[in-house]
TrEMBL record:
Species of the source: Streptomyces albospinus
Protein name as catalogued: Membrane protein
Pfam family, one: Oxidored_molyb
Domain of life: Bacteria
Keyword Transmembrane helix: yes
Length: 473
């Protein structure tokens, strides 16, 4: 009511405005909904046209792949071999990284930005003395042996890499991405590893860093792939008898029934090989690679069969006739810098101690029979070293309980001119500053005038041409 007692019209006006707004918003909403529906319909029409578009010629067409051997069973046989071998390959690779004691010092760590990926690191032991020779020998040899299996597995699933359309949905796109990471990761890891052991590493950047991160990318994709395919692999393996397949001759070799993954050829050609022959050929290839590789780690008479091992070449005769990684000339160590003016400096508690080689030879000498084992998978047989115990040198430095030692080489440049050894390595009675080997002075290529030799230690951490030891708490 107004002041004169007449009814107010402001309320009805507000109601009319509100109703107008609702009608307008309703029209806008209806228009938006119509536009959205039209967009969805247009998108579905585009997707339908894309799905109806025939694949381009060549490997994108199912009839391109005609082998009657391809199918879930054969793929699963090769997959089972990799399911056993790849986790062992990965674990031994992690152990190889741990053997460098990367958590001890930045000098030892070639992947300083690893973050949580170094969660498993532990103090590398010195017992048994052949531990690194075993783990790295298994890692490299197994990696080479798995190459035929890997190639056979890629051959068996290669139609999947060319399926059309490449991406059909978000879920399908994620599966394709995991497949890309899996295939790309495994190829990268095997190629970089094989080039490295053949001493032909040509990739930019550090092998240690690229191989380490590549391994984690690959294993992540591998785990996802196993989780997605384990059930189908189990069903496929149960669908056929292995013994029956191995008895099936060429005349009775038939394609497998069509499968949901599209591995079986749509228009298979007549068989020219049995599945027994395919499995046997892969097994023979792996056996051949084992024979021409394993001897570099096993040693003895098998060393002569390691034709694929660059360090298997005969190093010559004499007490220093065993493998080396790099010669003195290759790293810039000349006879002049290790001549009569060479001195060993020992630092610790109090003033530095300085010794000539002749003075070191007059001190109590100790012996140890130890191999040299390297990241490339090769190792020597046990060599008979003699020299001074690192523990005795720590005592000379006034630090009998030293927790580590910095070892510095005369080598002018390189990744391992300086390394840090852990306390358990310093105090192992077989850990030596070696002056002689097999009853003779060290040769220049083997580290003359003095080198470190430590049980179970990677070869590059057994520093050659040592000129300074700094013991630390």
């Amino acid at each position: 009511m107004d002041s004169g007692g007449r009814p107010s019209v402001s309320g009805s006006s507000a109601e009319r405005d509100e109703a107008h707004v609702r009608r307008r918003m309703g029209r806008i909403g209806a228009a938006a909904a119509a536009r959205a529906a039209a967009a969805v319909a247009h998108g579905r029409a585009i997707a339908r046209r894309i799905r109806q578009t025939p694949p381009p010629p060549g490997p994108f067409r199912p009839e391109f792949w005609r082998s009657p051997l391809r199918g879930p069973w054969l793929t699963s046989v090769f997959g089972l071999m990799l399911l056993i071998g790849i986790p062992l390959l990965f674990v031994t690779g992690l152990l190889s990284y741990a053997a460098y004691n990367p958590g001890l010092s930045p000098l030892n760590d070639k992947t300083p930005d690893k973050g949580v990926l170094g969660f498993y690191l532990f103090s590398w032991p010195t017992h048994p003395y052949w531990l690194y020779r075993l783990t790295q020998g298994v890692h490299v040899t197994l990696g080479v042996v798995l190459v035929p299996v890997l190639l056979a597995k890629l051959w068996s699933v290669i139609p999947k890499l060319f399926e059309w359309l490449p991406v059909r949905s978000v879920a399908h796109g994620l599966e394709r991405l995991s497949l890309l990471m899996l295939v790309g990761g495994v190829i990268f890891e095997f190629v970089t590893g094989i080039l490295n052991i053949q001493l032909y590493y040509v990739f930019p950047g550090s092998f240690y860093r690229l191989h380490f991160y590549g391994a984690w990318v690959f294993i992540a994709a591998f785990v996802v792939h196993v989780c997605l395919k384990l059930g189908r692999m189990t069903s496929a393996l149960r669908s056929r008898s292995l013994s029956a397949e191995l008895r099936t001759d060429l005349a009775h070799t038939r394609p497998e029934p069509p499968d949901p993954d599209g591995l079986v050829a749509a228009a298979p050609a007549p068989a020219t090989m049995t599945r027994r022959g395919a499995v046997g050929m892969v097994g023979a290839g792996s056996l051949l690679f084992l024979v021409v590789t394993a001897g570099q780690s096993i040693g003895g008479w098998l060393r002569g069969t390691a034709l694929l091992a660059p360090h298997n070449r005969d190093p010559g005769s004499g007490p220093n006739s065993f493998q080396i990684n790099k010669s003195a000339a290759a790293v810039g160590v000349t006879p002049a810098v290790v001549g009569p003016t060479w001195r060993l400096e020992i630092h610790g508690h109090g003033p530095a101690r300085v010794f000539t080689r002749e003075q070191l030879l007059t001190m109590p000498q100790h012996a140890a029979a130890l191999p040299i084992a390297c990241v490339e998978g090769w190792s020597t047989d046990d060599q008979h070293w003699s020299g001074l115990r690192l523990a005795d040198l720590a005592a000379l430095a006034g630090m009998p309980d030293a927790g580590s030692v910095l070892v510095e080489s005369l080598q002018p440049a390189g990744s391992f001119t300086k390394v840090v050894l852990r306390g358990n390595q310093v105090h192992d009675p077989r850990a030596l500053l070696a002056l002689r080997v097999n009853g003779a002075d060290l040769s220049l290529d083997h580290g003359y005038p003095a080198r470190v030799i430590v049980p179970a230690n990677p070869g590059v951490n057994n520093t050659k041409w040592v000129h300074r030891l700094t013991f630390r708490t």
